[in-house]
Amino acid sequence: MSITKTAEWAKLAELAKTVGQSSIREAFQADPSRFDKFNMKLNEEGNDFLFDFSKNRIDENVMAELRNLAKVANVDAMKKKMFGGEKINFTEDRAVFHVALRHQGDEMSTGGKNVMPDIRAVQAHMKEFCSEIISGSWTGFTGKKIENIVNIGIGGSDLGPLMVTEALNRAAQLDWNQLVSNSIGLDCPALKPFKNHLGIHFISNVDGTHVSEVLKKLDQETTLCIIASKTFTTQETITNANSAKRWFLSKAPESAIAKHFVALSTNKEKVAAFGIDTKNMFEFWDWVGGRYSLWSAIGLSIALSVGFDNYMQLLKGAASMDQHFLNAPAESNIPLTMALLGVWYSNFLGAESHAMLPYDQYLHRFAAYFQQGDMESNGKYVRRNGDEADYQTGPIIWGEPGTNGQHAFYQLIHQGTRLIPADFIATCKSHNNPTGDGLHHRLLLANFLAQTEALMLGKSSSEAKAELEKANMPAEQIQKILPHKIFKGNRPTNSILLSELNPFTLGQLIAAYEHKIFVQGIIWDINSYDQWGVELGKQLAKQIEPEIQKGSTTTAHDSSTNALINFINARM
Ligand SMILES: O=P(O)(O)OC[C@H]1O[C@@H](O)[C@H](O)[C@@H](O)[C@@H]1O
């Protein structure tokens, strides 16, 4: 039965006409304890995680009905299946078991096999390798230490490591106190650096510009290439890897490949065929989805960048969110609540997109990472039974860091015609304090807080009018300008506050969003763990590639595609 035919869905549809249209501003005025009712907190290993969802068009009734919807959709049973290693990715006949990769105990089984010994063995290999590279005991073909790491991969074999290495990019910081002679002392506590001396680079796009621009700055003698590909067949990655090999062999002998190329993959045969010694391969398994793979050997570039211990802290943070998701009751379950709010806006209030707005420059690739995480998982119209869904599924995920976004697209969130629920993410402490008195971080947080308040409150006609009158604007002018100065408000936001950004809290944050995606996929009755939708374009690209030849013409396609190919061929 379609979820839309349930009594819970019908009740929510009714509530959407009342509570869904009601004023959040008035709800706050009517209930001074609203925040207490609609926030959830975690404290793990000295790290605080606050999820405030009080600035939403909800009341207790709506939340209770949403939780009932999760119940009829069997979220709990499916959650147990995922953590139990069952093959819930039925179109690929695979378990969805990335949670095992960050498990802190000794047993997680799928298909009757405890996978923890294999996971620990790969982690031990990663640890040893990281220590050799970071300490410099691993040397290149001319005896020099490795200075630069290049991760060659795409999609899940790129975006996770890229996002996390950027997020944990805090190296030894500029000592602003030395630069600012009249410093008035540090207000922001100095946080521990994560990043070490190694340069980390990423090559993903098949555009030859990407590989060229990255490699031109590097030296073969001191560079390590990590070829990251679950399948080791991805066209972009293999093309880039071959080009990197060509670049390397222009200066080094074939026998040096073992010191400068390693592979992260599930496919031993293809790795060997590429010319990488399988001793230098870090394995993972088919039950790790590409977009959930940063917890596996795919995270090697992260472990190299911040050290193995920090990498394990990232996994530990994710594991703590796993336990919370698995065990916390629905009434205090953060990922479940994030998911239900998304369903509320997508399915009952017509929202088409969801903005992710981290007020933290280190998280500048966070939204890009979850574009794959969410949209490749839940961008599907076919239900598990093969029927077409008669409701909206995955939203469009987008976003940029604040405050930059405020000066770019927030206009549309404030006064546009669309409803855009948004997650605002920030940290209480900053890693950087250029003025010595915490000014930058106070301004950042003031903007973070002001935006969610402004989106919720809006500005009424009388408020806008009073402002204009105070500025002594002539009445005639006020009349003309007034409608443009009104903000309807009532725009929903979640606020997520971390005490600080560190490997542990980052792990928690990523895992929370992963589980949000899981819950939504269950409610929408789709398989969040396959990605057949990316195949058709790949197939056609393979057919078209030989037709792109200087001077040749084609009539094999529709008139547009033919004309485009012929236009290119005439100008190459
Ligand atoms: O790691 P691989 O096998 O090279 O795959 C990379 C990416 O390939 C894409 O085609 C898939 O849509 C992604 O999910 C995947 O992450």
Automatic annotation (TrEMBL):
Coiled coil: none annotated. Pathway: Carbohydrate degradation; glycolysis; D-glyceraldehyde 3-phosphate and glycerone phosphate from D-glucose: step 2/4. The lineage of its organism: Eukaryota, Metazoa, Chordata, Tunicata, Appendicularia. InterPro entries: G6P_Isomerase (IPR001672), G6P_Isomerase_C (IPR023096), Phosphoglucose_isomerase_CS (IPR018189), SIS_dom_sf (IPR046348), SIS_PGI_1 (IPR035476), SIS_PGI_2 (IPR035482). It comes from Oikopleura dioica. Its EC number is 5.3.1.9. It catalyses: alpha-D-glucose 6-phosphate = beta-D-fructose 6-phosphate. This is Glucose-6-phosphate isomerase. Keywords: Gluconeogenesis, Glycolysis, Isomerase. The keyword Phosphoprotein does not apply.
